[in-house]
Amino acid sequence: MKEYNIENLDCSECGLELERGLKELDSVKYASVNFSLSKLYITTDDLERVKERIREINPEVSLTEVNGNHEGKPLNRKRELFILTISAVLLGVGILFREELTETPLSSGKYCIFLASYLLSGWRVLARAVRNILHGKIFDEHFLMTVATVGAFAIGELPEAAGVMIFFQIGELLQDLSLSRSRKSIRALLDVRPSVAHLKGSDGIRDVVPESVDIGATILVRPGEKVPLDGRVIEGSSQLDTSPLTGEPVPKMVSAEDDVFAGMINKSGLLTVKVNRKYSDSSIARILYLVEKSTQKKAKSERFISRFARYYTPVVVGISAALAVIPPLLIPGATFSDWIYRALVLLVISCPCALVISIPLGFFGGIGRASRRGILIKGSNHLDALNSVDTVVFDKTGTLTKGVFRVSSVVPSGAWNDEELLEWAAAAESHSDHPIAKSIAEACGKKVNTEDIKEYREIPGSGIRALVKNREVYVGNDRLLHDLDIPHEQCHVEGTVVHVVVDSEYAGYIVISDELKEESLRAVKELRKLGINTIGMLTGDNSYAAGLIAQKLGIDFTAADLLPEDKVQELERIMERGKKTAFIGDGINDAPVIARADIGIAVGHLGSDAAIETADIVLMDGSPMQLVEAIRTARKTRTIVLQNIALAFAVKGIFFALGAVGIANMWEAVFADMGVALMAIFNSMRILR
Prior knowledge:
Number of domains: 4
Low-confidence stretches: 68-75
Number of helices: 22
Strand order of the largest sheet: 14-26-25-24-15-22-23
Distance between the termini: 33 Å
Strand content: 15-25%
């Protein structure tokens, strides 16, 4: 899929029309227009045909290659304002000296001055309406305004025709300004991109763009600057602000051999960093990429409004035509001019701009707000779905607990002693990157000779088997002992337990302690306050350790000793009860169950590709409280979207009724159209504050 900037896309309905038109092409496998960012995402093997189709749909729109941030080419606002000022002056002169001007229709000064005002302000609307009609696109805002104002001229309402066109264009200009402002606000919210990298080479230090730096290069990060690329510190120490990635302003101390990630802010010391990822693969680039693509997955309300707008305008045109023709034929004394005027008022009112613009803008604002708090939501549909969640299921290790393991006790069996037990366990686990294996190696304190390790094999959900100095060693959980039929005294021990078996003899067990996160209990309580009815936990740890955590947190149910496939089966049983279920795990070994959940949420520890790729939502700081914040953001976003829908329908409905009975005129109809659109846009932007 490729990404292009769209130039001169100035209405959301035009974006929908463009998207529908491109999807009709056989050469296009996928097409999505993001009006909020003026971008096109498309998969095609015939770009020239795509450009040709765009010209057919809207000749003013064009594609350009993506090159950094893009806001599209705005209207020349000074020129537009000057033209509208001249038009308004002509309109004012025409109204003030209306009686003094000759009354002969076609040759009168009155006709000429109002016509000049009308054409000066509305020529772009008229031209676009004609062009769209020639391309088979009839029912849009330009068509409605053209019919309404030309009709007003036809029945002698010259000042209103010119005035309505002027105010419509003023509304369009204000709408363009407000949309531009909203886009800038969203971009400012998301813009944590580093702009420069200080590349260190044999010829000294050069300032380059991060995109040009290769893996293995050395860069300097000075105090106060953003880290431009993912890498590892090779010299220096400093305190980093991680909030651009995690949403939490918790300082992180780094020194040699520590990893740093693009977007973090260096607060104190000078760092020398060896780059280990291209900018396009860096954490911040991937986050921004996914946030930018998030509006491609539309929420139900967005899809409904898109379909609704296609049928709403033709229906309103039909009602207006009936209102212009039927009453004068049926009501004694009714005149065609009066009822045609009323019908024209309805046409001005009927434009669905407020709905089509404000709803996607509201969702994108919600996604932007969440991203600044370290919550990556991969689509409006996922943000909207959070409103329906009534069951949350947690993984334990690394999600509710810190995942920082320490050996708390060593319990040998028979003739074995503490030192021997740790040495055999550390040797067997020497090829594992699991935190438990690392904690055992740290407690052992001796370097393992890897040449002594043969036939290393992981047993999913149970443990590890290896030949250590030609002796068969098993290291794992209680399930492993039962599978091997190894006699042992204790099955239930507090904490995470690693049993050790050497040549079929039980050597003892090692207790690994994992500390509960401080915010876990608070998160469970806050979820209860938000109306989450059921909170559970699925874990591969033993039932005793899982039960202790569940008891401390007040969790409704827990299932322990689960393999990854067992977790999926347990989750499916929960979902069969008709619950809208969110599962939150570490995004690596929990990938199958994250993918199966209604909403999969990953604890996306910095740099975890698996977390970012698998889940619908990623909590970059790994805090359960970020889930609470995500649900609150979803509810705030839905409230604003529903407010916009209610506002648009209510105001348009009222003015529709007033226009039909002859109370509302065209000036008021313009407010019902452009005024409501502006109000909805400003309301949508509240989510960012």
